[in-house]
Write a structure and sequence with these properties.
Layout: E1 20-25, H1 34-43, E2 47-52, H2 54-59, H3 62-69, H4 88-95, E3 98-104, H5 106-114, H6 120-126, E4 134-138, H7 142-146, H8 148-157, E5 163-166, H9 187-200, E6 210-215, E7 220-223, E8 226-228, H10 235-246, E9 250-255, E10 269-272, H11 276-286, E11 292-295, E12 302-304, H12 314-322, E13 327-329, H13 333-340, E14 346-353, H14 357-368, E15 372-377, E16 389-396, E17 401-408, H15 409-424
Parallel strand pairs: 1-2, 1-3, 3-4, 4-5, 6-9, 6-11, 9-10, 11-14, 14-15
Antiparallel strand pairs: 7-8, 12-13, 15-16, 16-17
Helix pairs in contact: 1-3, 4-6, 5-8, 10-15
The protein binds cytidine-5'-triphosphate (CTP).
Cytidine-5'-triphosphate (CTP) binds at residues 295, 297, 299, 301, 330, 332-334, 349-352.
C-alpha cells in the first residue's frame, strides 16, 4: 500500500491558502483588532477584503485596512455610487469564499436575524450565496450580551444554515471596565474557526455528543528539579478538541503542559494535569459519561516509584537512575479505558513510531483493543511532535487502513472525528483477546457484541 508522503508545513495545504475572505467589521471596540486579523489571514495565504459598518468606521481606519489588505475597504457611502456598475453588496457577497464577521455587535445581530438589509454590511451578509459560509464572533457589553432580546436573537442566529456563531469569551476585561462575558474571542481562535470552516464547512453533526480528549505530555517527577517527559506540544489533541467543539460537541480536555496558543482552549472544559497518575484519576472521573475518548496525550512509559522531596545530588541521582528498582512502568490508560468502556463508547488512540510505522501500529491496535488508532512517523519532516502538519494511517478494529495526509493537523482532526462519528452508527467490534475473534469487516455480524 502506498504510504503517506512526507511534507513540510510550507507544502501541505493550509485551508486558508488561496481562499477569499471578506472581513466584515461592526461597531464594537474589538473592531480595533481588524488590522491584525487582516495581516494574520494574509500571512496564511488568504486574499482579504474589508467591509465596515458605519459604527466600525469610527473605531478603525478604512485607510489602514485598505492598505493592509491591498484592496479598497468598503464603507457605507460606497453603496450606490455611479462608478460602481454592479450593486456593491452583491459584488462583495459573490466575491467571498467565506465571510468573517468580527466583531459582531448586538445591532448587526438583530439585522441578520430579522433580515433587515438597511446598511451595506447587513445587505452584503444577507446577499451571501448559500455556498458562502459565515463565521461570526459576538462582542459587546456583558449586560447587553445577557439581555433577553440579544439571547433570543443569538439562539436563532446560531442555528442559521452556513453560520458558525462564536459566542464571546466566557470572561475578560471589557472596554467598559467590567469583567464578564462579552469580549470577542481571540484572533487566534477566529483563524482556527475560519480554517476549520474552509476545510470542512459548517457542521453541527456532533451536537448532543460528549467527548473527552487528552493532550500533551505527562511529566513524571524524579525530584523537585527533574522529571521524565517527551516532546509532545499538545497541538494535535487541542485541535481535535476544538474541531469537535466547533462541530457542536461538549468537550472536556484533559491536558499536560501545553505549548499551543491558549486562545485555542476557549469553549472547552479544561483540566490541567501533570503526571500519568493525574491523568488516570481525571479519566476515571470523566471517561465513563463520554460518547468517545480520544487519547492524544503522550503518556510517559516509566516513572520514578518514589519521587524525592529534596533535590538529589548528581552522584546519588546517577546511582538511583541506574537502579531498576527505582522505576516502574506506567499503567496503560487506554487499555484501562477499553476494559471499562461504557456501551457504545468509541475509543481512539494514537501511535507515534519510527521505522515500520504500520506494522507496529497494527500490533499496537491489537494489543490495546481500541476502536481506532492513528499512527504516524515521528522521524519524517512535517509529521509528529510539534509539527503543523501530519501524515499517517488510520487503522480500525475491523482491519481497515486509510492513509491520511500530508495535511494540516486541523484537517486531520476533522477526518478522525468523522471516523469516530461513523463508529457510533456501526456495531462495535470485539477487541483482540476477547472471547470471540474479531476480524474482517467491522460490519460483519460475527463481530457484533450482544
Ligand atoms: N497510552 C496510554 N497509557 C500509556 C501509554 C500510552 O493510554 N501508559 C495511550 C496514548 O495516549 C496513545 C496510545 O496509548 O493513544 C499509544 O501510545 P504510545 O506511546 O504510542 O504507545 P505505548 O503504549 O507507550 O507503546 P510503545 O512505547 O511501546 O510504542
Amino acid at each position: 500500500m502506498a504510504g503517506p508522503t512526507t511534507t513540510t508545513a510550507a507544502t501541505a495545504v493550509d485551508p486558508l491558502r488561496g481562499r477569499r475572505v471578506l472581513l466584515a467589521v461592526t461597531g464594537s471596540i474589538a473592531a480595533v483588532k481588524a488590522p491584525s486579523l487582516v495581516t494574520a489571514l494574509q500571512a496564511r495565504g488568504a486574499e482579504v477584503r474589508c467591509l465596515l459598518s458605519p459604527s466600525a468606521e469610527r473605531l478603525v481606519s478604512p485607510v489602514a485596512l485598505a492598505s493592509l489588505s491591498r484592496h479598497p475597504c468598503a464603507c457605507e457611502n460606497d453603496q450606490w455610487q455611479h462608478g460602481q456598475p454592479r450593486p456593491l453588496h452583491i459584488d462583495l457577497a459573490e466575491w467571498a469564499d467565506l465571510v468573517l464577521l468580527a466583531p459582531l455587535s448586538a445591532a448587526t445581530l438583530a439585522r441578520l436575524v430579522h433580515g433587515q438589509a438597511d446598511q451595506l454590511l447587513a445587505s452584503t451578509l444577507l446577499a451571501r450565496p448559500a455556498s458562502c459560509p459565515l463565521v461570526a464572533a459576538a462582542a459587546m457589553n456583558t449586560d447587553m450580551w445577557l439581555a433577553a432580546a440579544v439571547q433570543r436573537n443569538w439562539a436563532v442566529f446560531q442555528n442559521d444554515a452556513g453560520v458558525l456563531a462564536l459566542p464571546p469569551a466566557a470572561t475578560g476585561l471589557l472596554a467598559c471596565d467590567r469583567r464578564g462575558p462579552g469580549r470577542m474571542v481571540e484572533p487566534a481562535l477566529l483563524e482556527l474557526a475560519v480554517a476549520s470552516v474552509l476545510a470542512r464547512g459548517v457542521r453541527r453533526d456532533l451536537v448532543g455528543r460528549s467527548l473527552v480528549v487528552t493532550a500533551g505530555p505527562t511529566r513524571e517527577a524524579i525530584d523537585p528539579a527533574r522529571f521524565l517527559s517527551n516532546p509532545s506540544t499538545g497541538r494535535m489533541g487541542v485541535l481535535l478538541a476544538q474541531a469537535a467543539r466547533l462541530r457542536g460537541a461538549q468537550v472536556q480536555l484533559i491536558h499536560g503542559p501545553l505549548q499551543v496558543n491558549s486562545a485555542w482552549l476557549e469553549g472547552l472544559e479544561c483540566q490541567a494535569i501533570v503526571s500519568a497518575a493525574d491523568l488516570e484519576e481525571a479519566l476515571s472521573l470523566r471517561a465513563p459519561g463520554a460518547d468517545a475518548v480520544l487519547m492524544a496525550a503522550a503518556v510517559a512509559d516509566q516513572r520514578w516509584r518514589h519521587p524525592d522531596p529534596a533535590k538529589a545530588p548528581k552522584q546519588a541521582l546517577q546511582e538511583r537512575l541506574a537502579d531498576a528498582a527505582s522505576w516502574e512502568a506506567v499503567p496503560d490508560l487506554l487499555q484501562q479505558l477499553v476494559a471499562r468502556r461504557s456501551p457504545g463508547q468509541v475509543l481512539l488512540g494514537f501511535a507515534a513510531h519510527t521505522g515500520d510505522v504500520l506494522g507496529q501500529a497494527r500490533a499496537k491496535l491489537a494489543r490495546k483493543g481500541c476502536d481506532l488508532l492513528f499512527a504516524n512517523p515521528i522521524d519524517a519532516p512535517g509529521a509528529g511532535f510539534g509539527s503543523e502538519t501530519n501524515a499517517g494511517w488510520l487503522l480500525d478494529a475491523g482491519g481497515a487502513v486509510e492513509a491520511i495526509g500530508p495535511c494540516s493537523k486541523l484537517t486531520l482532526a476533522h477526518r478522525l472525528l468523522d471516523a469516530v462519528a461513523d463508529r457510533w452508527y456501526q456495531p462495535p467490534v470485539l477487541s483482540a483477546g476477547s472471547a470471540t475473534e474479531a476480524g474482517g469487516s467491522s460490519s460483519s455480524s460475527m463481530n457484533v457484541l450482544s
